[in-house]
Amino acid sequence: METAMKLRRQILVDGKSIRAFSRETGLSRNTLRKYLREDDAPHYHLTNPRPKRCLKDFEGVLKQWYEYDLKRPKRERRTAKGLYEQLILEGYKGSYSPVCRVIKCLKQHQDTTHEAFVPLHFEAGDTCPFDWRHEVVVLGGVEQTIKVAYFRLCHSRKPFIIAYHRETQEMLLDAFVQAFAFY
């Protein structure tokens, strides 16, 4: 993405030619034109699904083995490599990649994960998380790192932020006093 932004700036704003940018970066001119046309960096789109030539006869067997392995204890389940080796013993002549694709597809369609939602409910004044953050600011023309005390009530989600030059115990206690006075 950084290259795309650099490309856009140098070609569209600074007026540099595509050929010169291509020589400079080593990217082809066609790729640079794609960067200019699209908002995001160009990426490969698979237009047609990959053919399953060799695995066609063994796909049913592979699905049966995978479903059987799901019923077994986790330690006894075979990996994709184990299933591939078993397929070779059965007479499979293809490579490992198609087996991995079928296993990946089977895992995606498997409905073993269940989402859970636990609603969080906080009473007013119950909890207030606190943390220090480090921010870089310019004060009087000089760049400095300051320490920021950050509070947020869990009930109302209302934040309180106060900045200090140092992160000492006195600053910590003052931050809590200021926060409690604010809330």
Query: Distance between termini?
Result: 43 Å
Mean pLDDT: 85
Q: Which assembly state applies to the chains in this document? A: single chain
Which sheet architecture does the biggest sheet show?
A: 3 strands, antiparallel
Category from helices, strands and their pairing:
alpha+beta
Helix content: 40-55%
Strand order of the largest sheet: 1-2-3
Number of distinct helices = 7
Whole-number total of structural domains: 3
Tell me the fraction of residues in β-strands, as a range.
5-15%
Q: H/E series, N to C? A: HHHHHHEEEH
**Could you tell me the number of beta strands?**
3
Radius of gyration: 29 Å
Describe the overall structure.
There is one protein chain. The protein has 183 residues and is an alpha+beta fold. The chain has 3 domains: 2-37; 55-109; 130-182. The longest helix is centred in the middle third of the chain and has 14 residues, at 96-109. It is built from 7 helices and 3 strands, in the order ααααααβββα. α4 (59-71) packs across α6 and α5 crosses α6 (96-109).
Question: Could you provide a short overview of the structure?
Answer:
With 183 residues, the chain is of the alpha+beta class. It is 44% helix and 15% strand.
Structure characteristics:
7 helices, alpha+beta, 183 residues, three-stranded antiparallel β-sheet, flat, 44% helix
Please write out the topology.
Elements: H1 2-13, H2 18-25, H3 29-37, H4 59-71, H5 80-90, H6 96-109, E1 130-139, E2 142-152, E3 159-164, H7 169-182
Antiparallel strand pairs: 1-2, 2-3
Helix pairs in contact: 4-6, 5-6
